[in-house]
Amino acid sequence: MRKKHKPNPAKQQRLKDYIAKMKETIAEHTRSLELDPNNAEAYYERAIARNIKGDKKGAIADFTRVHELDPKNSDALNRMASIKIKLDDNRGAIADLNLAIAIKPDDFEYFYNRGYALMKTGEFQESIYNYTKTIILYPDFEQAWYFRGIAKSYLGNSRDAIDDLSRAIEINPKYAMAWYRRGVEKREVEDYQGAIDDYNQTLKLNRRLTDVYFYRAVAKFDLEDYIGAVIDNTKDLSYEPDNYWTLYNRGMSKRLLEDYPGAIRDLKRVLELHPDFEDTHSQIGICRYHTGEFESALDEFTHDLEVHPKDPGAWMHRAMLRLELGDKYSACKDLRMAAQLGKKEAQYVLDEVENEDD
Fold it and tell me: Interhelix angle for 226-239 vs 211-222, to 10°?
């Protein structure tokens, strides 16, 4: 879990006062509806107050009643859809927004909300269409550019996503999340330094976006800045000490820095949190090989293969260690398995070893 930020007492009190006011508003409109059960405006106002108070189901019931009494009230449909999106009833939200758009087809907010609901259902192409409609109606709406970029990212189109995120940043240079996501997409197109620059700007704008440390560490690793990666991983772990991915990444960087004891500590902690995670046993095996603990290294490679028998890297690592230990017969068996699983260099090594025997 990320560290929680200290609560603001003044802000909390203002919120309590506002909630109390909403309770009074709900009571007032309830009395009005007792006198006039068909008062659409009273249902509408009570729905808004109920939503603010946190009674989302009550708000939906009131907005539904507004729609029954006033079918042309597109704003009620939009507000109801927004609540349904928060409740993850995205299909229900889309149905409401379809009605709202039919009533008022020039409202950018309706298309924006429908684009978001469609993105949450995985209909990314339709989502992009709705965000594009939003942008046509409101060209400087940075959030529409941002989310269209996210939808394009989900379709694997990182370069177009970067263009949209860049436009969001042009409109609002303080849009921290746009800088953050553009950094993610830049790494996807192997612009590692560009990604780091965007992550740096993200943290300047919003220090609370602590996930950035994880992703910046990855980009630094890609640039072989292993010291920088370790620093960022360590910072990330100060917020989420049991993040096994971060521990694994830090262990990998430490291994490449030849800090084998430190790498082993991180990687063993990974296995405590997530047994048999990825190739962690093999990575520990590599470290133990470099510290001269050959039998322990062999055990780690063997354990990895018991869990991940189709990992050509593990077969290759064990083969090379067995050659080191003089067990050519077993090494050749491992090399054949690695070659069969697609490790090309395994076949070259196997040919050399067998030619030596000839």
Answer: 160
C-alpha angle with apex 251: 178 to 297, nearest 5 degrees?
A: 150
pLDDT band at 1 (very low <50, low <70, confident <90, very high): very low
Task: Tell me which residue of 55, 67, 146 sits closest to 102, measured CA to CA.
Answer: 67
Q: What is the predicted pLDDT for the residue at 357?
A: 62
In this predicted structure, the answer to whether residue 2 has a pLDDT above a threshold of 90 is no
| Runs of H (alpha helix) within 9-39 | 9-35
What is the maximum alpha-carbon separation in the chain?
A: 102
Q: Which residue has the tokens 């006039």?
A: 36
The secondary structure of 183-221, three-state, reads HHHHHHCCCHHHHHHHHHHHHHHCCCCCHHHHHHHHHHH
175: which 2 tokens?
Answer: 């849009």
Is it the case that residue 44 has pLDDT exceeding 60? yes
3-state SS assignment for residue 194: helix
Q: Which residue has the tokens 């995120």?
A: 165
Distance from C-alpha of 313 to C-alpha of 305, rounded to nearest angstrom: 10
Kindly compute the dihedral angle of the four CA atoms of residues 16, 21, 27, 31, in this order, to the nearest 10 degrees: 180
Question: Cβ of 231: how many Cβ atoms within 10 Å?
Answer: 17
Q: The tokens of 55 are what?
A: 């009674």
Residue type, 322: R
- 20 pLDDT band (50/70/90 cuts)? confident
Residue 47 near residue 76, CB atoms below 8 Å: yes
The dihedral of CA 179, 184, 187, 193: what is its sign?
positive
pLDDT digits (tens, 9 = 90+) for 296-349: 999 999 999 999 999 999 999 999 999 999 999 999 999 999 999 999 999 999
